[in-house]
Amino acid sequence: MAFAPDGKTVAAGGVDNRIRVWQVSDQAEEGSNPLLITRFAHDGAILNLEYSRDGQQLVSTAADKTVKVWKAADVTETHLLEPQSDWSPGLTLLDGGVFALGRLDGSLGFYDAATGKVAEMPKPAAPVAMKPKPAAPEITRVEPRGVQSGAETKIKLRGKNLAGITEVKFNLPGLSATVAQDEKGMGAELTVTAKGNVPRTAVEMTVVTANGVSAPQKILVDNLPQMVVAGTKEPLTLDKLPINLWGTLAATGQRDDFKFAAKKDETIVFDLTAKPLESKLVAPRIEVYDAEHKLLAANNGLDGGSDPFLAFTAPRDGNYVVRVLEITLEGSPGHVYRLTAGMLPYVTGWWPLSVPANSEGTIHLVGPNLMADSVTVKAGADGEVPVPQNTADYRTRVRIRVMASNLPESLEQEPNDTPEQAQQLTIPASVNGRLFVPGQPDKADADLYSFDAAQGQQFVIETRASMLGSPADTKIEVLDAKGEPVPQVLLQATKDSYLTLRSADSVSAGIRLGQFREMALNDYMYFNGEVVKIMRLARGPDDDMVFFTRNGTRRAYFNTSAAGHGLDEPCYVVVAKPVGSAIVPNGLPVFTLNYVNDDDSDRELGKDSRLLFTAPAKGKYLVRVSDTRGWSGDRFAYRLIVRPPELDFAATIATKGEPSIAAGSGEQFVVKVDRKDGWEGDVRVDVSGVPAGFFVSSPVVVQAGHLTGTGTIYALPEAKQGAADFKSVKWTATAMIGDKPVTKPLEGPATVAVAPQAKQVIFLEPDIAGKPAGDGKTAPAKPYEVTIAPGDRVSVWLRVDRHGNDGFINLDVENTPHGVIVDSIGLNGVQIRPNENEREVFLSCEKWVPEQDALIHLVTGNARANESTEGLESSFPVWLHIRKLGATTVASAKP
């Protein structure tokens, strides 16, 4: 694994021979770190990856004894090094564009990253007597990392170059500090004064010396006393609560015990903070024991991935012990924590999760020791409603989130656990409920709601829970009036297969399958409850079957949810048939899919649920809401929405910032479509008003059921260097929704820069009598035309005019209609090798592809990529006409 120098991307290599690149964000939420690029890189497992110091290049080594240099921006191969004598797990990039390889046989190799050629071993630099630059202060440890508002708190600093601190800075008013320090500069003691009106919050602190400013340190401000504790064999007695305890699990297997007294029915809260402190604790745990060492309560995390939180209600008067430990038994000076202990009011849940727009609403609070169980909020027209967080009356472990709603709002009315008790809804409806049985907190709850429907009437049924901070992982089911599941479709298996090589997670687009040659594009496949659709066929036994994705994650169909699947798990190609169809047995199973959803099929709602329901007959139907794990409690709030579908789309033009294109070359843009409520039609993007000196692909059609299309912005050879004004260029998206055309304006790039000559220029040319149609050095005055018949294949030429790039060039043909592929490519995709300038490939068209026209183009990129990427170098476009044999081709024909 290697992080790019800018910290915004991370590359990882796997045993599946691929390099994957992810965007790195500062959010710890699903979907915030999307997969950007996947490349089949080597014929063996990846051993090591390293970015160049300028972030422009990426070097990879593999178990096939090969080493490659890649263009980091799009992971395009630039050089394949000479064969290595052994594996090269050792890899480092040196100054001067040279990198070093360390091989298992003990040998070293040095290579020039720009050319891929052998380089001389760098000579050690001659020692130069230099006056050392004064070092800025460095802080390695802060004890404690918290201060008390309205009081003075002693803080010890450890680090380097801390002598001569002249100032301590905070990024929040009301905090100040005086300094006492040692003469060696290895430490200092601060007396921090926080005014009484400083709120409970995290602040940043830096220290200043004559040599510079330290990196900011996070300090937590609280109104509780702060106490630093050291690990002891005997429990430390806490004479007075509440308090903030600062500890470190420094030794392997260390457990910190604290003795406290409590009266019967008192609720003592223990709130452990580790992750916000960037602690090395990975699996902290809180346990409470009685005087006889009997375990009474424990917690590993309030919710998945969070720090432990325990509200302990004493069963009797007496002494108890709370223990802090690391489940993995690891320990180090970096395993720091803060334990907040006392009869403190905490909000751990709330409901409802939505209130009517433009009105006041009451939010009921859930948690221990609360003096008031509700707050009043004022909602605006739309969006999130401001809710007080961490007030003087309560603390919060989860940010309280409430949404304004323009739907009719109601609250769950218990009892509603049986079909006879189902709560009646009038559509459209938004109802807020809780999976909670009063007096029986451990009992699983399921809530039922009823609504009336006409035959064929369509509904969107969805929840909001996890997205708004609730711990509920909802599942929704549609039942008939008797409470029986409503079948959605029959799936008859026609071919069987199984997972090979490795298991599959719930995200990846590619899954390695056995018996892959029996499958076809657009086949639905059934994986133990999940239904997916084949987007690209495996090109051999060492290739994955690639399924349709949305935002880089595998897309599910028929309201099913993506899930993980084990090695050797059976799977099936299936054909969808209406419920009630006569099924001719073929020896393979038939699956009945009911109207059920756990996680939204399109992954827009994270763990929350969504399904599209079509009533099979007139009558009353029920929606059952439950937690997919069977969990419940007073914190398990949800919002159920039942509404008619609102068929619509949104489209965006994605470019890599403001494009910078060499004259005589192009850059790919991507049209991205967000489809709403199951609408799956074509979206056509037209471009007009293009300034002189440029050609822009128009139209670009995002085909039905697809989410992206691509085009090229091409700078003609006569384009003048500098910034070209594209503000007047008109981008519009048009689609037929029902029987009405819907047109929406889009925003394209404001400027396009024309850059100096590139290191290579690429061309896509038709075949004429076994030779390319052009000269491989200039683009035609208007797009070439290529015609292909369904079920046929046609030859085209990929050509490159080199201007300094003498290495391998990976290429792909983009914007081909679904069902048209670059045929017979290898595991490394389509490559033009060093000392070559052209390659003939074949476009193959499936028999079912309808007649249409599309502007296709060539890009520098691996043909095995699962999704299109904006910013790739592109060729001048070519018209691809798909016509049945004997049909007439018209260049201006529109899709």
Itemize the secondary structure elements and their pairings.
Layout: E1 2-3, E2 9-13, E3 18-23, E4 35-40, E5 46-51, E6 57-62, E7 67-71, E8 76-80, E9 90-93, E10 98-102, E11 108-112, E12 138-143, E13 146-148, E14 151-160, E15 167-170, E16 175-181, E17 187-194, E18 201-209, E19 212-213, E20 217-222, E21 226-228, E22 236-237, E23 243-248, E24 255-262, E25 267-273, E26 284-289, E27 295-299, E28 309-313, E29 318-326, E30 336-342, E31 346-347, E32 349-351, E33 354-356, E34 360-366, E35 374-378, E36 384-385, E37 395-396, E38 402-405, E39 409-411, E40 423-424, E41 429-434, E42 446-453, E43 458-464, E44 474-480, E45 487-498, E46 510-511, E47 524-527, E48 530-536, E49 545-547, E50 549-550, E51 553-554, E52 570-577, E53 590-594, E54 596-597, E55 610-614, E56 619-627, E57 637-643, E58 648-654, E59 660-662, E60 665-676, E61 683-688, E62 694-696, E63 700-702, E64 708-715, E65 722-725, E66 730-737, E67 740-746, E68 751-755, E69 760-768, E70 771-772, E71 784-788, E72 793-802, E73 809-814, E74 820-823, E75 830-832, E76 838-845, E77 852-860, E78 873-874, E79 878-882
Parallel strand pairs: 13-20, 21-23, 22-24, 31-37, 33-38, 39-41, 40-42, 59-68, 71-79
Antiparallel strand pairs: 1-2, 2-3, 3-4, 5-6, 6-7, 7-8, 9-10, 10-11, 12-14, 14-17, 15-18, 16-17, 18-19, 18-20, 23-30, 24-29, 25-28, 25-30, 26-27, 26-29, 32-34, 34-35, 36-38, 41-57, 42-56, 43-55, 43-57, 44-54, 44-56, 45-52, 45-53, 46-49, 47-48, 47-52, 48-49, 50-51, 58-60, 60-64, 60-78, 61-63, ...
